[in-house]
Design goal:
With about 240 residues, this protein is α+β, with helices and mostly antiparallel strands. The protein has helices at about 75-90, 100-115, 120-135, 180-190, 200-220, 225-230, and strands spanning about 1-5, 5-15, 20-25, 45-50, 55-65, 155, 160-165, 175.
Length: about 240
């Protein structure tokens, strides 16, 4: 957000210091050390002047290594990247977790470089990768209640946190997945692209399932407008 006439206040997810709020003085000037390109989705090396017991620190320099600027040229990728960053900035713990930082960075890189046909699946894989890094991997190979092994088809409960067997699905709102969709979900959660690109209907269904899981297990009653936008929109290559 803008601060005064020339500065910005930023929220950074860093590998070494965790989540930090910083002021970048003069960042909106053309010749600023932090640079006018310092914007959402960019990655780099930050120089921070940090003081104990302060909630707002000072950003003294930022060397951009990946601007991810082309994401903003595609509304579908922009929506997915916005949801990805929103989850990281609202749900990541304040202390440093390198795996969370790396999952976010890898997700943004993947979104920027994905082929158009694969972009919906890449977006799902990136968000699931961050969810897993945050410690909320769903149980997919067995019933989350009793541990009964799965048999291909899956009844998935976002509220319960994974698959449910026939005996325990009663009374729960579930997404009933075919064997192919179950396999695709296991691939996405495991950081792999499904064997075949997701068509419009399946990509939308996977987004709904993932968004529901995040609302139940990560959001904790926080508003998630970027996630809602990504969940509600139709990918252009699904039309």
């Amino acid at each position: 957000m803008a601060y005064g006439d020339t500065s910005k206040i930023l929220r950074l997810l860093t590998r070494d210091a965790g989540l930090v709020n910083v002021i970048a003085r003069g960042a909106r000037r053309t010749r600023a050390g932090t640079g006018p390109r310092l914007d959402i989705f960019c990655s780099g090396t930050a120089a921070l002047a940090m003081k104990p017991n302060r909630d707002l620190h000072t950003l003294t320099g930022f060397e951009i290594t990946a601007a991810h600027g082309s994401i903003a040229n595609d509304v579908d990728r922009f929506a997915a990247a916005s949801a990805l960053c929103e989850i990281a900035l609202k749900c990541a713990p304040a202390e440093p977790h390198a795996e969370v930082h790396d999952a976010l960075a890898a997700g943004l890189d993947a979104l920027e470089h994905a082929d158009r046909e694969l972009a919906p699946a890449v977006a799902l894989m990136a968000v699931w990768g961050l969810v897993v890094a945050l410690g909320f991997a769903p149980t997919l190979d067995r019933c989350v209640v009793c541990g009964t092994a799965g048999n291909g088809r899956m009844a998935f409960s976002a509220w319960q946190g994974g698959a449910l067997c026939e005996a325990h699905r009663a009374g729960h709102r579930t997404a009933n997945l075919s064997a192919e969709d179950s396999e695709a979900l296991q691939d996405l959660v495991g950081g792999r692209l499904p064997g075949a690109p997701l068509d419009a209907r399946h990509a939308a269904a996977h987004r709904r399932l993932l968004a529901g899981f995040i609302r139940h297990h990560l959001a904790e009653h926080r508003e998630m407008p970027a996630l809602e936008m990504w969940d509600s929109m139709t990918m252009s290559n699904e039309q």
